[in-house]
Amino acid sequence: ELEALAQSIDARITHTAKKLKAADAAIKESLTGKLKEVEEVALQTYAEHEKSIKELREMVSSQRSQEGLRSTAQQTQLEQAVESLSQTRIQLDEHEKSTCSQLSAMHSDLAELKRGFSKQGDAVETLRAYVTSVEEKLSAQLDEQAKMHANGAKEASARWEKRF
After folding, report:
1. pTM
2. DSSP conformation letters of the chain
C-alpha cells in the first residue's frame, strides 16, 4: 500500500508537473504574444515619433530657409536704403554748395547794384540840384526879361503917348 500511495503521489506530482508545464507554456506563449504586441506598439510608436521628428525637422529647416531668405531680402533692402540715403545726402550737399554759391553771387550782385544805385542816386541828386539851380537862374532871367519888357513896354507906351 505504501507503494500504491507513492505511485499515486508520484502520479499526482507528474500530473501537476505536466499541468504546471502546460500552464508555464501557456504563460510563455501568452507572454510571447504580449511581448510581440508590446514590441509592435513600441515599433509603431517609434516609427510615428520618427515621422513626427522628421516632419518637425523639415518644418524647422523650411522656416529657417524662409527666415534666411527674408533676412537676406531685408538686408538687401537696408543696403539699398543706405545707398539711396547716401545718394540723397550727396545730392543735398551738392545742392547746398550750389545754393551757397548762388547766394554768395546774389549778395555780390546786390552789393554791386547797391553801389550802382547809390551812384545813380548821387547823380540824380546832383542833377536835381543842377536843374533847381538852372530853374532858379532861368526864373531870375525870365523875371528880369519880363521886367525889362515891362519897362520897355511902359517906355514905349509912354513914348507913344508922348507922340500923340
Report:
1. 0.42
2. -HHHHHHHHHHHHHHHHHHHHHHHHHHHHHHHHHHHHHHHHHHHHHHHHHHHHHHHHHHHHHHHHHHHHHHHHHHHHHHHHHHHHHHHHHHHHHHHHHHHHHHHHHHHHHHHHHHHHHHHHHHHHHHHHHHHHHHHHHHHHHHHHHHHHHHHHHHHHHHHHHH-
Cell 507513492 maps to which residue? 6
HSE value, Cβ hemisphere, 13 Å, CA-based, for 79? 6
Percent of the chain with pLDDT over 70: 99
Q: Note every long-range contact of 92-95, with CB atoms under 8 Å and residues 24 or more positions apart, other chains counting.
A: none
**What is the sign, positive or negative, of the torsion defined by CA atoms of 129, 135, 140, 141?**
positive
What is the Cα–Cα distance from 101 to 114, expressed in whole angstroms?
20
- pLDDT tens for each residue of 10-26: 898 999 999 999 999 99
C-alpha cell of residue 93: 550737399
Q: Cell numbers of 92, please?
A: 543735398
pLDDT at position 146, please? Answer: 87
**What is the rounded distance in angstroms from the CA atom of residue 36 to the CA atom of residue 44?**
12
How long a stretch of residues is the chain?
A: 164
Q: What would the grid cell of residue 98 be?
A: 550750389
